[in-house]
């Protein structure tokens, strides 16, 4: 590929990525301003290019610009949250990475990559407000489903060992670390521990650490103080909201490594400080953490701090996967049949022998959650029958020991259309397998979460 062609490709990439890109030269004049940045700030490229930055953004001070700061100090600014008004007066919240551009030991400009998190920030604020409302003493009754040990079903000896350990853990206040694959019931066990403990009358709050961007998770956990950054207000985080109760941190290995150190300090010292605040607030919170990957592997991969793990792993509980407790597959299925008979007002009595065999032989990578979804799907296929047959059991070949081959006839389609259909089919089935969790689906597919979101939008899933 010739240099001219490479330049053309780079320009195409630049103008089609989701992140905003803004580059200034050593004088502070804009030389690159991509379409995403223009859309974010409601500006036209022609009104920004080849003009001094502060001339275009008249309300911005020199010290407020991360681009000019990086240019002046020759320093890289990582994950900087910025809140400002665009041309239409709408408040925009971005996470920026800004760095000086040095070529042959000479400063030639500065580059900024901005990710728009306005909607995500609003969502996280709403989450905090709703959780505060839900878990307030006057509102908590009847608002959320409470799971106890009575809701846990299983007869397998290794599974019962984990449940019994949970019952013992409920009698003391020590931290608990639950390891189990996706769909094994980690939150179910965590809630059961809470509602069997002396903290049962106080909040149980769960947060999936993979469900929010790194930049927002710290504020969600510890809260924000007014004036801590532009636009910040006094808002309690989950630790304050869960005070006196239990905070369940699911997929804790998805928490940024640096933030894990702050969490460790909170667990050791018993107080938090809101982002941008100066006041320390004592919190009385029991933390239950979980991961869907073996802790030893997470520590080796530098995804989980060893010191944090040992602080949380006072009571370790390992929930066995469904493939290792085959004796629970049929009893669990019958348990779910009773549940959905009541929910859907049906009268399904039993599973056929072939249906039992089909369930028993499946690998169940989605564990009990996948099994429940399979039984629920079977209900949708039955009208007045009283028996679930093997024909009603729909299982896709996405388990670890099988090769997935979609049943497509390319017919008159071209290869691109055929591959697009195949890709859509695989993504849909993977999302079904992980109950719609985009982070887990991306991990299973071996692609970035952002890439998967782009494909979902592109394929109209």
Architecture overview:
This is Arginine utilization regulatory protein. The chain has 461 residues and is an alpha/beta fold. The protein folds into 3 domains: 3-116, PAS domain (Beta-Lactamase); 119-318, Rossmann fold (3-Layer(aba) Sandwich), CATH 3.40.50; 322-392, Helicase, Ruva Protein, domain 3 (Orthogonal Bundle), CATH 1.10.8.60. The chain has 19 helices and 14 strands. The chain has helices at 3-16, 35-41, 45-48, 53-56, 66-73, 118-134, 157-169, 186-195, 214-222, 238-241, 257-269, 295-300, 306-312, 329-344, 353-361, 367-380, 415-433, 438-445, 449-458; strands at residues 20-25, 30-33, 77-85, 91-103, 106-116, 176-179, 204-208, 246-250, 271-273, 280-282, 286-291, 315-318, 350-351, 387-388. Helix 14 packs across helix 16, helix 17 packs across helix 18 and helix 18 (438-445) packs across helix 19 (449-458). The two termini are 35 Å apart.
- Measured between the Cα atoms of the first and last residue, the distance is 35 Å
Strand portion:
15-25%
- The appropriate CATH architecture of the largest domain is 3-Layer(aba) Sandwich
Q: What sort of overall outline do the alpha carbons produce when their principal axes are compared?
A: globular
What's the total helix number?
A: 19
Low-confidence stretches: 136-143, 398-409
**Roughly what percent helix?**
40-55%
Q: Output the CATH topology of the largest domain.
A: Rossmann fold
* Secondary-structure content class: alpha/beta
